[in-house]
Amino acid sequence: xxxxxxxxxxxxxxxxxxxxxxxxxxxxxxxxxxxxxxxxxxxxxxxxxxxxxxxxxxxxxxxxxxxxxxxxxxxxxxxxxxxxxxxxxxxxxxxxxxxxxxxxxxxxxxxxxxxxxxxxxxxxxxxxxxxxxxxxxxxxxxxxxxxxxxxxxxxxxxxxxx
Length: 162
Fold this sequence. Notes:
Order of helices and strands: EEEEEEEEEH
CATH architecture: Sandwich
Strand content: over 45%
Oligomer: single chain
Number of strands: 9
Distance between the termini: 75 Å
């Protein structure tokens, strides 16, 4: 038997003009009894469409990088891939981190439209699948704010010094 479970459907992850990176986490509980269920295959199907070029996206599953895309200059075409995750999927809590990044310091706001689903083929009893959590990811690199913070610190220091 084969079942498909949506993780993200046309989810837009935005990197604001003054951020370098952003992401979205989806944690799904996927459990099965190994006595009554055999997982034959597990695949992550993902499609990503950015609004600008020279950007990156990648997916981590349970803290392991399992897939990545890079768009060169002037390339904004959607990219799709099917990734075998049979060795990475565990019976229990599975966290998928969908991360996006600018490849250069840019003042552009960039949107990434992402659709992702897990397709599980199994024999025996159907695995139990539920949504545990969805959270907006952390802001990692923010080069424009770092540069602005350094300039502001110097200005404040010089003002206090006088």
